[in-house]
Amino acid sequence: MSAPQNPLAASRTASSQQSELAAAPSSASMPDWYTQGLPHIWLPYSQMKTAPAPLAARSTHNARIQLTDGRELVDGVAAWWTACHGYNHPHIRAAIEAQLATMPHVMFGGMVHEPALKLASRLCALLPGDLDRVFFTDSGSVAVEVAMKMAIQYRLNKGEPKRTKMLAFKGGYHGDTLATMSVCDPEEGMHHLYGDVLANHIIAPLPQDEASEAEFFRLLETHAHELTAIITEPLVQGAGGMLFHSPDVLRTLRTAADRYGLLLILDEIFTGFGRTGTMFACEQAEIVPDIITLSKALTGGTMALAATIARPHVFEAFLSDNPEHALMHGPTFMANALACACANASLDLFETEPRLEQVAAINAHLTRELERCRTLPGVKDVRVLGAIGVVELEKIANPDALRQRFIAENVWIRPFRSIVYLTPAFTIPPEDLTALTDAIYRVLSTEN
Ligand SMILES: *Cc1c(COP(=O)(O)O)cnc(C)c1O
């Protein structure tokens, strides 16, 4: 599978010999668009010098991805856990086609439309408590940035200009833009590399036991005068390594936020829409955040869309005769009509198809079939929550190589840090789910 020389690093000025190598993995079968386009692509999270050549996807169906060379992979990731209804759901396709025929997009500055307003009212009805004011954006990171701007300007508008910092958590992930990097885990968020470019927020341990609780409250006490909000991912720190915590932690955060007069921002971009077993993770703690962010599964894995939703007391701090008190933000593709139509269709499917029951079935299935991995050499932990299955290893020396071994088993599983995880479509057939867990067991059995 590995090329003699890395095809990704081939530059525009590469010799013809190098361009030939661009197709090296299975050169005869790679289409022209692949060999010609690959030297112009910069891939995410990749050391382009050594990354394995990316697969060439041709089509998708439910929990499967067909490649141009004829192979078909069972998908354990669901496109970074967005495709909760499986790929190519006919109801979402019909919605996007209908919207495309009438109005793909209009600017949202001074104009609104049915798909966006319907979606806003449906989201507010679905969310717990009085989260009732929706600001649409086009990516998760931007939704978090908007939440941070709301929390900061909330203080400015109230005449508390010194309270502009966030309290965020070790192991947290809130996006890849500069502002969101500053509230990610300091190591994973590369704070040491970016140094003073990043804003200086307070990073605490999640209050999960006596020691971490003491440290959390110490930091809170010390910094309360300069803090505006606490921000966390509820129940699962996803990109931080699929680290689970109990609903009690969220109740502690809600109580602490109230005691110190802070806003609580819950980033449900990963957890929202059923992934943890309830529609939203915060329901399991029976708490309501002041601001919530949603994206990932919002459109059922079809279009880029995100939302930041605030409670009335947050929104009301922006109502003023002073023009400087308005929220100055407005992405060009904000509330894109096609994306909103997809999101409405996705919400329809949560109403008409048994998604949360499917999540419960996946949970039981993963619990049953991943358990045997626990005794494999190098396995540190096996854990399952909702439709998330995790096998944590002592360490993964080479995640790229491990990914290649999964591909050889005809499954799409993308290990990172020290974990192998599954976040499948909720519609995945049981036999496909077993294909995924079998592949994990087989590959980890022979690892090293
Ligand atoms: C994916 C993710 C983000 C960032 O979303 P993008 O759309 O990739 O910008 C933020 N927060 C959490 C919890 C996420 O899982």
Automatic annotation (TrEMBL):
CC cofactor: pyridoxal 5'-phosphate
Enzyme class, UniProt record, top EC level: transferase
Main localization, broad class: cytoplasm
Keywords: Aminotransferase, Biotin biosynthesis, Cytoplasm, Pyridoxal phosphate, S-adenosyl-L-methionine, Transferase
Subcellular location: Cytoplasm
List of residues binding substrate: W80, Y173, K296, G330, R414
InterPro entries noted in UniProt: Aminotrans_3 (IPR005814), Aminotrans_3_PPA_site (IPR049704), BioA (IPR005815), PyrdxlP-dep_Trfase (IPR015424), PyrdxlP-dep_Trfase_major (IPR015421), PyrdxlP-dep_Trfase_small (IPR015422)
Binding locations of pyridoxal 5'-phosphate: G140, S141, D267, P331, T332
Cross-referenced SUPFAM superfamilies: PLP-dependent transferases
Region annotation Disordered: where it falls in the sequence: 1-29
Domain of life from the UniProt record: Bacteria
This enzyme's EC code(s): 2.6.1.62
One MF term in the entry's GO annotations: transaminase activity
Modification type N6-(pyridoxal phosphate)lysine: residues: K296
Subunit organization: Homodimer.
NCBIfam families (UniProt xref): bioA, PRK05964.1
Function statement: Catalyzes the transfer of the alpha-amino group from S-adenosyl-L-methionine (SAM) to 7-keto-8-aminopelargonic acid (KAPA) to form 7,8-diaminopelargonic acid (DAPA). It is the only aminotransferase known to utilize SAM as an amino donor.
Annotated protein name in UniProt: Adenosylmethionine-8-amino-7-oxononanoate aminotransferase
Lineage: Bacteria, Pseudomonadati, Pseudomonadota, Alphaproteobacteria, Acetobacterales
